[in-house]
Every structure is written in C-alpha cells, then in structure tokens.
Amino acid sequence: MTGGSSLTDLEATARRARREIVKAIAHAKGGHLGGPLSAADILTALYFDVLSIRPDEPRWPDRDRFILSKGHSSIALYVVMALRGYFPIEEVATFDAIDSRLQGHPDMTVLPGLDMSTGSLGLGFAAGVGIAMGARLARRHFTTYVMVGDGECNEGVIWEGAHVAERYGLDNLVVIVDQNGLQQFGWAGQDPTRDPGRRRPPYAGTQLSDRWAAFGWAVTETDGHDIAAVISALRSARVARGRPSVVIARTVKGKGVSFMEGDYRWHSRVPTPDELAAALAELGDPVLIPEGA
Amino acid sequence: MAPPTGAALRDVFGWTLADLADRDPRILVLDGDVGSSTGVGPFEAAHPDRFLQMGVTEQNMLGVAAGLATLGFVPFISAFACFSVARALDSIRVLIAQPGLDVKITGGYSGLLTGMTGKTHQIFNDVAIMRSLANVTVLAPADEAETRQAITTVAATPGPAYLQITRDPAGSLFGPDYVFELGKGVLVREGPDVTLVSTGTQTIRTLEAAGRLAAHGIEATVLHLPTIKPLDADALTRASAATGLVITVEEHTIIGGLGGAVAEVLSERHPVPLRRLGIRDTYGESGPNDKLLDKYRLSAAAVAADVAAIMAQRPDRRPARAARLDGHDPRDRGTRSPASPDGHARLATGAQTRKTGGL
Questions:
Q1: pLDDT digits over A225-245, tens only?
Q2: How many CB pairs under 8 A join A and B?
Q3: Exposure pattern of B32-61 as b/e (b: 16+ CB <10 Å)?
Q4: What is the pLDDT of residues A140-190, one digit of tens each?
Q5: Which of A117, A128, A134 sits opposite B73 (nearest CB)?
Q6: Under 8 Å CB-to-CB from B71, ≥6 apart: which residues?
Q7: Across the interface, which of A123, A138, A160 has its CB nearest the CB of B71?
Q8: What is the structure's pLDDT at A4?
Q9: Phi and psi at residue B149, in whole multiples of 5°?
C-alpha cells in the first residue's frame, strides 16, 4: 500500500465511508444507496492507493484521471474524496442541497477534483476514452480510470467506446465494472412473491467479461470487496500493453448493511431513522456504540 | 491550400481546418465515418495524427471530444447535422454544453439540400435544438469567405460552438474584404419597404429574391445573421424599425430557429408585424436541389413570390408598382413561381458590399 496506508487502514476507511454515505443520504432525504455501497471498497482502493493524485492540487496536470461514469453513485465518490483530503468531511452534509458543490450527480464545473461531469449513463466512459486518447496525443503518461456499473453496460455508447478504445490500443485506459448484479429495476426475479427484493442481474445467463473480451479488451475479474485484490487487479491492468483493460469487480449492491444487500429496492431509497440507526450499528459507528461495549 | 472560389462549404471546412492546424496544435478533427462527404480529406492528409476516425459512433464521438477538450485540445466534429445534433444530443448536453467544454460541433449537410438523401438525413430543427442549449454559440455562415472566418473565429473563441455547413455550392455573398464578427449581423441590402432577415446559405437566395422584388417595385432590406446565438439584437431592431415589417427566411423549420429567435427579440424589444418563411412544420424528401427549393418555397423565385404575397395582403405596405409575382398563396408548397432573371443578374454583379450600422 502506498501513502503509508495498511490494508487494515483501508478497510477501516471504507467502513467509515459507508457510514458517511448512509448518513448523507438520510440527511439529504434523497440520493442513492445500493450503488454507492457496492462501490465503496473500489473507490477507497483507487483514492488511497492506486491513483496518482494530489488532493491539495486537484488540477495537477499529470494526475491520474478518474471518472465515475455511474454518476448516481456520487455520494460514495464525495465521501471518499473528502476522506482523502479534497474537502472537509463536514461538507458532505450539503449533498444535494441548493448551491452545494456536491450535486446529485458529479458536476466538474463546481467541484475541483472531478475530471468529468457524469450522470447520463455511458457518457462518462466515452469522455474517458477521449482523455486517454488525448493523453497519448499529448505524450503524457497518466492513466485514465473509469468506473461503470453493470447496468450501465446496457447503454449502447459503452460498446461504441469499447470498440474505439480497442481500435486505438488505449493501454492507458482502465475501466472498472462495479458488477453488483442489480440495476434500478431490471428484469423480474424467479419468485417475486417470496423474494420481492430480488431481480435478475443485468447480464443474467451471460458473462459480462466475455463481452469485454470479445471487444478486444484485457479482462480480469476480482472480488470488488477485497481491497487488496482490487488494488492488485488495478495495478495489473495498468501495465497491460497494447490494449485497454477492464476489471470486472464482483460486488454486492448495498454491501455492508445486511438488510440492503442484494435488494434492488435500496437503489435509491432513503432510510428511516430506525433503519439509519440499524445500518450505522452494523457499520460500527462509534457514536452509536456505548462506551465500554 | 485553398479551394476554388465559390466552393461548397463542406470543402471550405476541410481546407480551412487543415490551414488552421498548421499553426494551432490544439486543433483536432473527429470524424464519424463521413469524412469523404464532409470534406475533411485534406485535413487527414495534412495532419494524419490529428485526424481521429471514430467510426459510426456519434454518441461516443461527442464524448471523446469532451474528454479531449479537458486536456486543452480543440476538437472539431465531422458529422452530418442529423447525427451530430440529433443522435448525439445527450453527449452534447451533458458532456459539452453543461461543462462548457471547448468542442466545435459541425452540422454537415445541414438543411434541405443533402444530396437526395430524403427525410432521415434532412434535419430542419438543428438550430432550434442547439440554440436552446445554454453555453452554445450557434453559427450559420453563408459562403466561402464567411465560413472560413467563422471557423477561424470559433477555433480561437473558447467554449462550445455549433456551425452549420451546407453540402453543395450555393454561390458567393461576400468579397475578399469581408470581415466576419461573431455575434454581428450584416446588412447586405437596404430598402424601405420590408426587412428580410436570413441566415446561412439561404441568405444568398433571399438576396436574390430581393433583386426580383425590386423589379416589381418592392425595395427590401436584407439583414444576414450568421450568428444565430447570440443574436445581434441591435442590428435586428434597427433594421426592423426602419421598415416596420419583418419577414424571416430560413432553410430550417420556422419553429424555434431564426424565425423563432427573431420573434423572441422583436416581441420584447420592438414589436413589428412579423412573418416567417421556411420549412413549415413538416419533414423533407428526396429530390434534386432546385425541385426541393421550389417545393419548400426557399428558391429565390418562391421567396420573392411569398414576400410579394405577404405585402399584397397589407395595402399600407404595398408600393405603387408592387404586384404579386405569381398567383399562388405562399402557404401552398406544391407550386412553383415563374422565374425572373432580374435577381440572378443582380446577384451576379457582386455589387453587394458589407455595411454596418443603421439604415
């Protein structure tokens, strides 16, 4: 781990990020939860280990670029950026508020440190292809990372960009698929009556990794909640030569809160006060744990 | 490098960018697999490393352009207007217009005259769409001289811009001394009876129509607005006040384009009677240019006839010698007006010179 962070530190950071995410959504009374919680470990790995960045110099020209193409998971990005030192963690309380820099979907015009505005699915990836292409034209050596969702891979523009990136052999481009297996609503599950929170995954019956491989990308799969494995996969992806890389990170939507995990209904649901307390207890918020317990 | 005088604007596009890129390393061209039609071959030949073929991926292409712009490049899009604007609109809205990134979107094959493609490739509301997007400058140059300068100007002006580029040669409007100014209208003809406001290559036909009208006793002012956003409200107001009757003429739907923009400005700043000529809330079709222009009432003869008909409905406006140029109602698209050589002769003299200021 770089920056003096041990794996234990990173896991603690991800855990704290989850607490801040849940609190922020409850406070804002809006936003998304399932996707941010599935992405939290990957974002922690990126911002605390993989990315070459300077939080106090967000426009450093040679920084690695990161685009959260699944922009609806913005709260996870904001929390991890705050914990990394881009802005005070207290600012997270302004999420979704009027005049906030922390818009519902990431807005590069108001928050330094964002490399692209995103929110319309698939488009952040296209912009990432352009940044990687531009880095090559300008002979600059940073890496461009783009996180997409597996539901987002429904978008045709993903496959337009996948084709073009391969055509240009953009080995300075790394895509991470947060494959949490659920989308906002998606296709009905096997038994909606007995298991109303389950829906079929976006790529049920097919292998998402095969699709990326068929487009000529270097594909690796990893457990998206094993931070050491994520870091290892991203480091390997960065040294791929001659073609772009994708890391398929198997995740759980709502990861970390038992009653949210794997339930599509938590895509953008706001927790009640009781649910918030239960979630924070599971996530080990010290505020809610009595002293001496 | 230069194309011959009177060149099609698409050829001017490619040659101009190739020239510009010689001295501006920021300039790139992204092609949506239509470079053989949009005239960017000379750019690819001169700057192969800065010609980025994107294949048939318009949504991706506009997104790639946004990413490139974040690194200081100035990407120009080579695509047909129907695809760059309509197909890739969300990429433009979210990745270019909202962040205000420095991407220059061209709408090749704009308007009615698209090489007999029919309605799929004829987009009549590209200006209406693009001018409704905050942060986007919208241009429709008329001829070679203006197109060359418009491209040069937007390349040097930060921010998103949309530039209509027509397919076929349409004639010349301006001489070698012409100076294009972003956001400024150009008075190309002065007359006391009516103010014709036009844009893009249609201005050439509108000016020719004014010549035909003059032969019938109607002396028109013609105001050319190559920048549709921001609109030159001062020049428009002056030209409108001078005659008290405004008719817009555009190769575009009359809903939301030049006519819409003029109506918005005049209704607030200087209400005068206004009529809009252009595509009337319909789609296009295949056909040779002359037949299309006649059927959709955009040829010089059709515009002259329709202007005369409008004025005939306003006795207070009708000069003593005015007469209708044909017997047709201007809303009847299925007829053709008799030709008059007067307008052609007038345009061919090249006597029109750029003037500024009031009438």
A1: 999 999 999 999 988 789 999
A2: 104
A3: bbbbebbbbbbbbebbeebbbbbeebbbbb
A4: 999 999 999 999 999 999 999 999 999 999 999 999 999 999 999 999 988
A5: A134
A6: A131, A134, A135, A138, A140
A7: A138
A8: 57
A9: -75, -35
Phi, psi dihedrals of residue A146, rounded to the nearest 5°: -130, 130
How far is C-alpha A128 from the geometric centre of its chain's CA atoms?
15
Cβ(B184)–Cβ(B354) below 8 Å: no
Closest CA to A46 of A154, A147, A131, A137: A147
Q: Which stretches does DSSP call E strand in B255-330?
A: 274-279
**What is the pTM assigned to this prediction?**
0.91
Tokens of A264: 């599509």
Residues of A in contact with B72 (CB under 8 A): 138
User: Active-site residue B58, yes or no?
Assistant: yes
**Cβ neighbours of B61 in A, within 8 Å:** 126
ipTM metric = 0.94
pLDDT, tens digit (0-9, with 9 covering 90-100), for A241-255: 899 999 999 999 999
Apex A110 CA angle, A109 and A115, nearest 5: 55
Put simply, the answer to whether B64 touches A127 (Cβ < 8 Å) is yes
**Contact present, B103 and B116 (Cβ < 8 Å):** no
Element (H, E) at B76: strand B74-78
